[in-house]
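Saturday, quiet lab. Running sequence design on the structure tokens for the scaffold JK sent over.
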């Protein structure tokens, strides 16, 4: 078990969109949660020394490395936080775990099932030596989502019958938006399916406590050629000009239905072409005793219907999830003062540090990430085979 009186040095690989929010989490966690370990923001790694140094100064990292392998070798790094595109997750994570470093890895866990399997094996091997790992599905840490999971676990919905999950964005609806790495299969693994579809798969399985057993799917790429990107940062990018274009090699949208291990029917939609929707991660769950509904664009609210009430009194009611007794919420502001996107990552880091200190396996584990990866693979196989019903391995 880790000496909980000590500080642990954090080394983060990647400094763009995810790197910025992860940095915010490492900076803020001790200010709001009584975590048993003090994280020290020791070193930031990126390929460009100049850009990485500038990011380190802005985000609060003490040192810089341009080679992630050197970051792993450093004695002042005990935790490795991976915020890179999916094509590098497996190599970095496995090397870090084998070196005895705890690992927090962004989602989806990998670009392929084979990579995710290798990562899960490495995580299991490391866990036997007290080395912990977690995949960063941050939406589990939205207080309203955590409350939904609690209500389902308590049996408030009874037998689950329907799950509907959507993740709707309009990020690339403009056909002139450049060909960034998220639109290249060699870098991202898949498009909307892996980037945002993985979130709703994990969230549905987390809230229901069940796993997807099979799927029937459609995928589509609406814009197949895009201007080459000169630069990109987060979800913004600039075109290279000169009229040069490149091929989009991932899906723009994925639509699939499935069955959960407890028998419930499920439907999923992930698209980056839902004009007018910015970050609408939604789900509704219907059970024999009640229903729940959530939309991330109103992330402090959970809607609950108690079907055991008389019809005259029944109906969805809004729960404002900001009370001290709600998951995570009590550490922040007075009731009614809502939280935001960045807080989910602070909650994630809090749970990760507590698991390291307790010597327990954090959740979601690399095994959980592998289960999501297998669902994504089944969706791709089904879509390539005329939507044929495809079991999840």
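Result came back. Writing it out in full:
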């Amino acid at each position: 078990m880790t000496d909980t009186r000590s500080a642990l040095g954090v080394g983060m690989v990647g400094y763009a969109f995810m790197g910025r929010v992860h940095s915010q989490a490492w900076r803020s966690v001790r200010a709001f949660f009584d975590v048993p370990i003090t994280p020290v923001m020791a070193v930031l790694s990126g390929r460009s020394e100049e850009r990485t140094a500038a990011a380190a100064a802005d985000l609060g990292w003490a040192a810089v490395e341009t080679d992630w392998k050197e970051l792993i070798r450093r004695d002042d790094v005990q935790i490795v936080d991976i915020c890179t595109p999916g094509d590098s997750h497996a190599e970095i994570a496995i090397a870090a775990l084998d070196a005895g470093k705890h690992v927090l890895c962004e989602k989806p866990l990998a670009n392929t099932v084979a990579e995710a399997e290798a990562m899960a094996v490495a995580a299991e091997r490391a866990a036997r030596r007290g080395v912990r790992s977690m995949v960063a599905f941050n939406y589990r840490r939205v207080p309203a989502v955590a409350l939904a999971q609690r209500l389902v676990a308590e049996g408030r919905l009874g037998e689950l019958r329907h799950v509907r999950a959507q993740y709707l964005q309009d990020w690339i609806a403009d056909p002139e938006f450049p060909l960034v790495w998220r639109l290249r299969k060699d870098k991202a693994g898949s498009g909307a399916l892996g980037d945002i579809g993985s979130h709703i798969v994990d969230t549905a399985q987390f809230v229901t406590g069940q796993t997807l057993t099979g799927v029937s799917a459609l995928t589509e790429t609406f814009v197949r050629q895009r201007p080459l990107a000169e630069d990109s940062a987060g979800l913004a990018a600039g075109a290279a000009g000169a009229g040069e274009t490149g091929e989009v090699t991932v899906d723009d949208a994925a639509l699939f239905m499935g069955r959960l291990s407890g028998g419930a029917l499920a439907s999923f939609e992930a698209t980056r072409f839902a004009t007018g929707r910015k970050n609408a991660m939604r789900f509704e769950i219907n059970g024999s005793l009640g229903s729940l509904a959530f939309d991330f664009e109103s992330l402090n609210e959970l809607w609950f219907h108690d079907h055991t009430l008389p019809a005259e009194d029944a109906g969805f009611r809004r729960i404002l999830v900001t009370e001290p007794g709600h998951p995570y919420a009590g550490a922040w502001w007075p009731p009614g003062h809502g939280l935001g996107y960045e807080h989910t990552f602070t909650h994630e880091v809090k749970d990760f540090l507590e698991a390291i200190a307790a010597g327990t396996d954090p959740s979601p584990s690399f095994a959980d990430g592998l289960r999501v990866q297998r669902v994504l693979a089944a969706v791709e196989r089904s879509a390539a085979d005329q939507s044929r019903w495809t079991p999840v391995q």
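Notes for JK: The longest helix spans residues 366-384. DSSP finds ten helices and 19 strands in the chain. Ask whether to fix the surface positions before the next round.
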